[in-house]
């Protein structure tokens, strides 16, 4: 598209066609790529941790306090959020089943 005016021309001096050409030139399609998808799986509270490991809440509390899964746990006051995949990895379990020679619950 060829412009028949100088880009320094004030807008009030443009014809309607010139203005439309200028707007079309600046209106290029924009492709937005969403890179914010997060595939992590979280469990919440001691009940969620107990369900994840298949044990009681008391045992889940002991596992949390033992320090084995500290890198997977975020706690603010009474709120506990656990990255499930990382907790299973740190605890030595795969898909909810314990690895050999590592007793957890």
TrEMBL record:
Organism superkingdom: Bacteria
UniProt-recorded name of the protein: DUF3853 family protein
Organism expressing this protein natively: Candidatus Ordinivivax streblomastigis
């Amino acid at each position: 598209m060829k412009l028949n005016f100088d880009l320094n021309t004030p807008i009030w001096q443009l014809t309607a066609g010139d203005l439309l050409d200028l707007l079309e030139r600046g209106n290029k399609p924009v492709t937005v790529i969403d890179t914010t998808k997060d595939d992590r799986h979280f469990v919440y509270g001691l009940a969620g941790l107990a369900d994840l490991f298949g044990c009681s809440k008391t045992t889940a509390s002991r596992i949390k306090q033992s320090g084995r899964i500290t890198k997977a746990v975020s706690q603010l006051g009474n709120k506990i959020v656990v990255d499930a995949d990382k907790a299973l990895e740190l605890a030595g379990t795969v898909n909810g089943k314990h690895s050999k020679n590592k007793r957890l619950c």
